[in-house]
Amino acid sequence: MRATEEKPIRILLIDDHTLFRSGIKALLQRQSDFVVVGEASDGLEGVKLVEQVEADIVLLDVDMPSMNGHEALAQIRATHPDLPVLMLTVSEDCDTLGECLKLGARGYLLKNIDQDFLLRSIRSARNGINVLSPQMMAKYVHTKMEESDIDAMCLPKTGGKLAKQRVEPRDSISESPLTRRELQTLAWLAKGYTNKGIARELDLSESTVKVHVQSILRKLELKSRVQAAIYAVENHIDKDYA
Fold first, then answer.
1. Do strands 131-132 and 107-110 pair parallel, antiparallel, or not at all (unpaired)?
2. Tell me, what's the pLDDT at 174?
3. How far is CA 198 from the centre of its chain?
4. Is pTM beyond 0.85 here?
5. 148's torsion region: left (phi>0), alpha (psi -120 to 50) or beta?
């Protein structure tokens, strides 16, 4: 490997379904920037394996025997607070999602996501970006909005503590610094759409949507797509511009 090349991302898989784990491993190892350094079939084995291999990110299931994903996540975060853990699960329960985020998970992905989204999410999580399955983000935002639990909507910072930055709605959306196209982008984002999905709805290129999302976060001084979704819901942008 040349000195100018980046080292591949070392991934540890923890999932009790052998067939699923094998499929994910095969997918990851087809990527030039990924290498699977270990795999475990339950949480207890996974926690032990974290001590034995050098990993850059952990993909962790929630429902497993011996030790479930919550317990494994808590133990991994306690001993390796800088190691990103990305939940990969079939559970669409918002309480499960919230608990994982509180414990310090870097993200929460459903197993029915497409391959490209999974690969992008792993790279993003490795670079310090929190990620959620689009449908879970929309579901979680609206559930927590109904419960008026806005603080719980903020994703965890490094170290596992919840960010307490509350997104305050403006008195009038006319005061928003966003352009109409950015408002439209934000509306579809709040509905859980990916950049690709937003691009399709607005007849834009995916790269243009990415620029719009970055501009939205910068103008609103927000740190994540989830916080942006909160802003959109509180200001009815999701209903008025999509």
1. parallel
2. 54
3. 17
4. no
5. left
Summarize the confidence of residues 73-90 as an average pLDDT.
95
16: number of Cβ within 10 Å: 19
Determine the pLDDT at residue 155. Answer: 43
176 contacts: CB under 8 Å, gap ≥ 6:
170, 183, 235
d(CA 76, CA 56): 13
Give the per-residue pLDDT at 145. 63
Q: How far is CA 183 from each of CA 98, 172, 175, 242, rounded to the nearest angstrom? A: 27, 14, 12, 9
Q: What is the mean pLDDT of the chain?
A: 83
H/E/C letters for each residue in the chain?
CCCCCCCCEEEEEECCCHHHHHHHHHHHHCCCCEEEEEEECCHHHHHHHHCCCCCCEEEECCCCCCCCHHHHHHHHHHHCCCCCEEEEECCCCHHHHHHHHHCCCCEEEECCCCHHHHHHHHHHHHCCCCEECHHHHHHHHHHHHHCCCCHHHCCECCCCCECCCCCCCCCCHHHCCCCHHHHHHHHHHHCCCCHHHHHHHHCCCHHHHHHHHHHHHHHHCCCCHHHHHHHHHHCCHHHHCC
Taking only the tens place, the pLDDT of each residue in 213-222 is: 999 999 998 8
Question: Which is nearest to 210 in space by CA: 150, 138, 120?
Answer: 120
**How far are the Cα atoms of 76, 84, 150, 156, 224 from residue 159, in angstroms, in the given order?**
12, 10, 20, 8, 17
pLDDT attached to residue 236: 84
